[in-house]
Amino acid sequence: MKWGDGIILVRGFPCARFAVVPHKITPRPVTFAFPSRIFFPVRLLLAVATAALALGPLAAQAPEGRPLRIYLRAGLKTHGPGQHDYPQFLADWSKLLTEHGAVVDGSLHFPTPPELANVDVMFTYKGDAGYMTAEEKATLEAFLKRGGGLVAMHDTICADDPDWFATIYGGAKKHGQTNFTLEAPVAYTITEPAHPIMQGMTGFTITDESFFLMTWAKSPPIKVLATAPQAPTPSARGHEGEVVPQIWTYERTIFGGQPYRAVVWMQGHNYANLSHEQVQPMLLRALAWAGHAPIDSLLKFRPARGGGGDRGRGANPAGGGQNPAAGQPGVPGAPSP
To answer: Which of 37, 56, 89, 173 has a Cα at 20 to 30 A from 276?
Structure first.
């Protein structure tokens, strides 16, 4: 074989030149600008590669004995007093989860690859979280491909593209639709009482908000843990009595990655419901399950050194007076047995 020149083409455009010798290819980079018609796909590809490198091949599971690492993704407050209070969630649950043994980080922005690099679970309470840039989608996909877990509440599952977002959380709703009951009873039926997340739970009712025009993932499908009939409110006219999933899990493997887990609780319109005696322990178990940690790993109160004991003696971790579950073993706000 003789010396020669070769050119690498990408979709018909030259991007590099190399010298050809027997049994050897020596790349010689050349200056090149991608034509505008292929710039966006290339930029997205580079974003995926950058996110994957930043997140790295970290362990997908939180081994027993290591603290669960949780990122709280919140947003700016919307709605009226006591509703959709995302910043208060960031403040309250940072403290609550730390007191229950987790390592916690969080923000009001979508996390960067370095911020997710050591995270086991991303816990999101933010309106319209499905509105994401190409770079944010690439970061999320890289996180999920290494087995990172997701927990979401309420209108976190609202998106401009619910077909895509349903493949992330198992279910999603279209932004802008009249698709809510507003302030109304949500009467839960526990459909999977044996599931670890639902252990000890019985049917109960809260005043909150439910969605009914949902886009569901089909392959794989969700696993429904609890349902509720739609309340007969003016905004839900025509959907009264429809039984819709309210709590579910979703397990999926993105091509080339590890399996990941997601859990969704559809409620959270009224912020006080996050501290309900059955809801709060359920969310703590959901975080542990999504992070492949022992299911009860976040249920024990661990007061910080130098004080903070009042947090374990009837104080409501989410604010608003006494925790109605105080005194019940294994429930946040109650002393550990």
So the answer is: 173
